[in-house]
Amino acid sequence: MLHVSRISKSFQFKYSATDALKDCSLSIGEREFVSIIGPSGCGKSTLLNTIAGLIDPDEGDVIFRDQSIVNRTGEFGYMPQQDVLFPWRTILDNVILPLEINGLNRKEAKERANPYFEKFGLEGFQYQYPRALSGGMRQRANFLRAVLPAYPLLLLDEPFGRLDALTRSQLQQWLLQTYEELQASLLLITHDIEEAILLSDRIYVMSSRPGTIIEEVRVPYARPRNREVLYEESFSRLKKQITEYLHG
C-alpha cells in the first residue's frame, strides 16, 4: 500500500546544517499496524511528517498505491503528540472538524460521528469542552477526529507519550481493541519498546541521527491480542533483541 524509498533530509541553518534522515526505506501493507522506534532526536517525527506531506525530502520518494505523494497533504489521518483539541469547541465540534473541512455539512457530520462516541468511551461527553475531560479521554477524542474521515492510513506521533503510566497502559489496551474494528493501517512513532511490540505487526528500528532504518522486526503474536503477551518469555526475548539493536 505505502512504500517509502530512500528518503533523505537535511535542515539548513544560517551557519550550519543538520542531517536528519539518510536513505530511509519502509513499507506498510493494507490493514497493517507498523511502528517506528529509535533514540530521541533520530528523525522519527521528521520521517512521519515527510510521509504526511508536511516536509519535502531532499532525496527519495513516498509511493501510495502506485502514485508518488511527496509534498501532498491530506492523504492520511494524522494524530500529533500534543493535544490539539480546540478549547472553544465542544468535543463533538472538535471531532467533526475534518469532515466539515472536507465539505460535509454539519448535520451529516454529526450523524457520522455520533455512533463512535460509545465505542471510543466518550458517550455523554459530546457537548463538553476539552477542559472537562481527562488526558486519556482527550487523546481518544483526538484519535476519533483522525479516524472519522476514514483515511486508509493513520499516522500516530507518540500519541501516549505525555500520559501517566496507568492511563498509557489503559489506552494501549483500548487501541488494541479498537484497531480490530478499523478498516485502516496504522503507523506509530514511539520510543517505548514494550508499546511497539504490544501494538504492532512489524517494527522498524532507526539509528541515531542521521536516522536510517537498521532493522525490521516481525512481531509473532496473533490478533486479537491483549496485554497478557507482556508476560510471555518470548516477549522478553524480543524486547532484549530490539534493545540490542538500539544500542548497536
From TrEMBL:
For the ABC transporter domain, which residue ranges apply? 2-233
Task: Name the InterPro entries for this protein.
Answer: AAA+_ATPase, ABC_transporter-like_ATP-bd, ABC_transporter-like_CS, ABC_transporter_ATP-bind, P-loop_NTPase
Q: Which organism is it from?
A: Pontibacillus halophilus JSM 076056 = DSM 19796
Q: Signal peptide span per the entry?
A: none
Q: Name one GO molecular function term.
A: ATP binding
Entry-linked SMART domains: AAA
Keyword Electron transport recorded: no
For this protein, the record's CDD domains field holds:
ABC_NrtD_SsuB_transporters (cd03293)
Keyword Transport carried by entry: yes
* Pfam families assigned: ABC_tran
Sorted alphabetically, which keywords does the UniProt record give?
ATP-binding, Nucleotide-binding, Transport
Designated name of the protein = ABC transporter
